[in-house]
Amino acid sequence: MIDLRHHGDAEVGGGLADFAVNVRSGTPPDWLAERLRASVADLAAYPDPAAARRAVARRHGRAVDEVLLTAGAAEAFVLLARVLAPRRAVVVHPQFTEPEAALAAAGHPVDRVLLAPGFTLDPAAVPADADLVMIGNPTNPTSVLHPAAVVAALARPGRTLVVDEAFMDCVPGEPDSLAGSLPPGVVVLRSLTKTWGLAGLRAGYVLAAPPLIARLAAAQPLWAVSTPALVAIEACSEPAAVAEADAWAAAMGAERDALAGELRARGLYVVPDARASFLCVRVPDALGIRALLRQRGFAVRRGDTFPGLGPDWLRLAVRDAPAHDDLLKALADLGI
Fold first, then answer.
1. Domains of the chain (ranges, CATH numbers)
2. Which residues fall within 8 angstroms of residue 286, CB to CB, at 6 or more apart?
3. Which region, left, alpha or beta, applies to residue 163 given φ > 0 means left and ψ of -120 to 50 means alpha?
4. Distance of alpha carbon 79 from alpha carbon 57, whole angstroms
5. Which of 55, 150, 228, 332 is the most exposed place for a label (fewest CB within 10 A)?
6. What are the pLDDT digits (tens) for 139-168?
7. Long-range own/partner contacts, residues 286-289 (CB < 8 A, 24 or more apart)
8. Whole-angstrom Cα distance, residue 191 to residue 47?
């Protein structure tokens, strides 16, 4: 049985160079860290999400009542699983496993649509009677970005389409995000964890039609998002921060593409057209290679805990050129 609760953080520790967790290194930036430190002065008061909700709404051109702030995208998956009552829930894999885990924990049977290597989305592959569909875009762990029109084609009357856009800010300009258009029945989830290095803070949000937002809010515990997380959400939604993230995405993309080229030159299959902050790589005996890399001081993410992948897949987080050189040298020492 696949362990849906295995995540990249389980791979790291012991001084290992971290290629397992898809969180931008060297973060948060100084300006954000200073605002977070200043927020500690307000911890005696209960959190007030109003300003952060308005900031998110402005950032995406949405109404405030289309926004729900959450303790990371993971909380949003749990809330959706508790509030919705699907007759047939479908998760498109390979993708982040928490959506399926949350549905299963809430007692919902889940059908899987497994995309073949290359991992191109064909809307016709999703059963027509599915009234809840969950998909990532760009998708973790494949780094594939599905065109907005193709994802939107999954929406239809009577169906809730949940699009996990936790890595969308890895794509300069976000041309394939559905956050701005938000077609009927579409729910978009976003996270600040990856780009801003805030995994420990738990900061994210949901964009959806007001009636669903109201239902999710009613199921959410009071004061679920802390004051520091609200400060982060507001700050990272400001135009200057969005521009900074966009510049980072462009620089990161160049590093990613260079690493992908080096891996392909060694005869490895790298899922093409990667657009997120990681690469999905097929390596013979990937679990054995992973173990040998750990002995040499490198943590990489195993792929066999993602439905649709298997024991010959690894996910590699994008770092900088010197770190990539070190990893490539270690692979060369292993004959790769």
1. 8-26+241-333 (3.90.1150.10), 30-238 (3.40.640.10)
2. 302, 303, 304, 311, 312, 313, 314
3. beta
4. 20
5. 332
6. 999 999 999 999 999 999 999 999 999 999
7. 286/311, 286/312, 286/313, 286/314, 287/311, 289/314, 289/331, 289/334, 289/336
8. 19
pLDDT > 70 fraction of the chain, expressed in percent and rounded? 100
Q: Which residues contact 253 (CB under 8 A, 6 or more apart)?
A: 170, 172, 275
- As a whole number of angstroms, the distance between CA 282 and CA 269 comes to 5
Residue range 82-105: mean pLDDT, rounded: 97
Phi, psi angles (nearest 5°) of residue 257 = -65, -35
Tell me how long the chain is. 336
Secondary structure tally for the chain: helices H, strands E: 11, 12
Reported as a pLDDT band with limits 50, 70 and 90, residue 19 is: very high
* Gap between the Cα atoms of 80 and 69, Å rounded: 13
Cα torsion 188, 194, 196, 199: sign: positive
* Helix 227-236 / helix 30-39 crossing angle, nearest 10 deg: 150
Closest Cα to residue 314, out of 269, 261, 256?
269
Strands 160-164 and 132-136: parallel
The span from the CA of 238 to the CA of 6, in Å, is 33
241 alpha-carbon distance from chain centroid: 19
C-alpha closest to that of 230 among 82, 121, 74, 67: 67
Q: What is the pLDDT of residues 253-310, one digit of tens each?
A: 999 999 999 999 999 999 999 999 999 999 999 999 999 999 999 999 999 999 999 9
Question: Which residue(s) pair with 316 in the sheet?
Answer: 279
> What's the pLDDT score for residue 246?
97
